[in-house]
Amino acid sequence: MERYHYFRQFHDISSADYRLLIENLQSRSFKKGESIVVPGQIQRELYFVKSGVQMAHFDTDDKTYVIDFSHFPALCAIAESFSFQTPSKYFITCLTDSEMEYLSYEHLQKLLDQSREIERLFRRMIEAMLADMVNLHINLRAMTIEERYLTFCRKSPQLLHLVPHKYIASYLGIDPTNFSKLFNQVKI
After folding, report:
1. How many domains does the chain have?
2. Which residues contact 36 (CB under 8 A, 6 or more apart)?
3. 160 domain-assigned
4. Residue closest to 46 by CA, chosen among 66, 64, 70, 10
5. Cβ–Cβ under 8 Å, residues 92 and 37
6. How many whole angstroms separate alpha carbon 161 and alpha carbon 184?
7. What range does the domain containing 83 cover?
8. How far from 72 is each of 12, 23, 52, 59, 85, CA to CA, in Å?
9. Which residues fall within 8 angstroms of residue 102, CB to CB, at 6 or more apart?
10. Where is the Cyclic nucleotide-binding domain (predicted)?
């Protein structure tokens, strides 16, 4: 039921349409360190996180660049790979053991055709994701490292204890040493 309330933040989906959506979900488990998507692979399933934390990232020259984190009750996807059924440029890696529910791309398309409410829900979720990406870009350019750290702590405090700090530092565009200083000195 918690996922139902999560969806309703984006669109006031009826309980009947919610049931239509969730009755088609299948389950899958992933182990810590396991990749859900790798570069060159087309993401064919849209994942709904039940438990665990996942990270979207790419690696170059022995450095990991973190794009995003996902955790319950959010979706877990490489948006452009899933939406356009094109090869991914990024990884999604499980940072903890993870339980997911998923729909195939084809099945989701049928549901979107079947229900205007489900289609509207996903459109609004994508709009929110786009707004979050724009805000992250603004924050990376306009905020000090302390402001970025505090904003992250307010939005996702639970991740401070579940995600290696080097990955949070990468996501926030902060040197890991400076992140460690912030973590030890700035109280929230």
Report:
1. 1
2. 30, 43, 47, 54, 76, 92, 93, 94, 100
3. no
4. 70
5. yes
6. 13
7. 2-115
8. 19, 18, 7, 25, 24
9. 25, 26, 27, 28, 45, 46, 47, 48
10. 9-120
Task: Work out the burial of residue 142: count CB atoms within 10 Å of its CB; fewer than 13 is exposed, 13-18 middle, 19 or more buried.
Answer: exposed
Considering the entire predicted model, what is its pTM? 0.88
Report residue 34: phi and psi, to 5°.
-75, 140
What would you report as the CA-atom Rg of the chain, rounded to the nearest whole angstrom?
Answer: 17
Any domain includes 89: yes
Q: Residue 1 has what pLDDT?
A: 58
Token pair recorded at residue 167: 């990955």
HSE of 92, CA atoms in CB hemisphere, 13 A: 28
Per the DSSP assignment, residues forming a β-bridge with 101 are 27, 48
- How does pLDDT run across 161-170, given as a tens digit for each residue? 999 999 999 9
Element of type H or E holding 101: strand 98-104
